[in-house]
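Morning!

This is the sequence you dropped in the shared folder:
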Amino acid sequence: MNEKTPTPSSKRSQDEQLSFIWKNVERIATCMMTTFDGGRFRSRPMRGIARSNENAIVFITERSTRKPEEIEANPNACLCFVDVSTNTFISLSGVIALTWDHERLRELWTRANDSYFPQGPTDPNAVLLTFTPESGEYWDAPSNPVLIAIEFIRASVVGQKPALGDTAEVPMRSP
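The structure's back. Tokens below.
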């Protein structure tokens, strides 16, 4: 089965595309992280900390889960961020690494982490995952149902596919 590469329809410059991705990754924060578990994909919700100046997204997680084993066996991962209220969708592909940096863990720690790690940032079960995106793709569509309906009508009248937003594949680098 041949997969067609989507035709980019973005009017944004590459710098604007990167800025759009990082701004929304930071705003949405929670994603579905997909890793490989043996020969299968495995996804789970994770809350990330966007570090655009480092071209990284950092996660605080438990060492006792299967994530460290999965990542050690295959560091390729995909993060999907979605905001259905604004019809913003972002998929990032890259590599993820387990990080044992306790100084950085203290720096990124918030009170929300205390409920998972009762000993705070010194909890021996708390570790960092650092995701480095290599490529990204986004779709930014109108969220107003009336505008969407009008676009479908327009496209039908002129015999074209509806233009439902801005989309692009973007090589990732620090903005």
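Headline: The domain at 14-171 is CATH 2.30.110.10 (Pnp Oxidase; Chain A).

More detail when I'm at my desk.
O.
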